């Protein structure tokens, strides 16, 4: 495995959240500048997750027909176009560009585990997965932090700030162009297309684990400051607690491969990380003054769960084609669950005027994630468990 491949993988990872995480900090300015209501602003935030869910199942078949590296180059090109279109001074362009770039990111999300399965030795899969999760987390955090200041300093205000991440996209596009050589479509070689493993119990466990960890992450990002402010924390402190949560999650995702090196059976690791997430929500319910403990548990568990969820999409497949099919299923199911979670929990909060019931539900879902993770962590391949 070459350094060039690792850099190319990291450049793709840098594009998987950068164009999305800055939207939250710019949303008040977007609503004010475009005349969008809060409901339309909420739709703009949820649209990427719904697009992920709709697009992900299409990637495996397209990869089989056109070639994985070739499709990655096309996805990065589409991401650049979508990012630019979204930044144009038009509400229609704002939504159309969001759909285009989200579909491109969905392709990147699914193709990356397949590329890792094809190009990375088995004993390094988790390390490379952890590396790209770390890069993805760092660039996402940077995007959240600098988008608002950029909107105040660059000409074009929030329009220009929405497009700054296109620099990563162009770099990724250029890094993958040389890899088109030798990337032959599997269809032209006579290789069989790997169907989506809808009837595999193991594939469903991987998918549900992916979905529940995504739900926990997007719920924390969306509602943690509101929960803390509701319990008496200042808005400034609540913002720093969200930053601390992301910092701990990054540390956990980086350290996990070192702690589990050589362990092929990861059932108890996945279950234990999920229990840590459940513990964080329990602390938020029962002892809100200990928010630092809650964020530590949520970050440790959440960072580990993300690496495991992405690693399983490579490790539980027997080939790169099967990895693309499994990743497509896991991310379609996963992002559909993730899109529903924050919205439903917000409705529950509005209905009860309290965060107690939503947090209790998150505890229950985290326990369910532990059960799914225990199944997904077994050292088996999906094709061996298909029914």
Automatic annotation (TrEMBL):
Query: Which InterPro entries did the record assign?
Result: MFS, MFS_Cyanate_Porter, MFS_trans_sf
Q: Does the keyword Transmembrane helix apply?
A: yes
Quote the SUPFAM superfamilies the UniProt record gives. MFS general substrate transporter
Regions that span the bilayer: 38-59, 71-88, 94-116, 128-146, 158-177, 208-229, 241-259, 268-285, 291-312, 324-349, 355-377
A GO molecular function term, named singly, is: transmembrane transporter activity
Q: Which CDD domains match?
A: MFS_NIMT_CynX_like (cd17339)
Against PANTHER family, the record matches this protein to:
2-NITROIMIDAZOLE TRANSPORTER (PTHR23523:SF2), PTHR23523
- Pfam families for the chain: MFS_1
Protein name per the record: MFS transporter
Keywords in alphabetical order:
Membrane, Transmembrane, Transmembrane helix
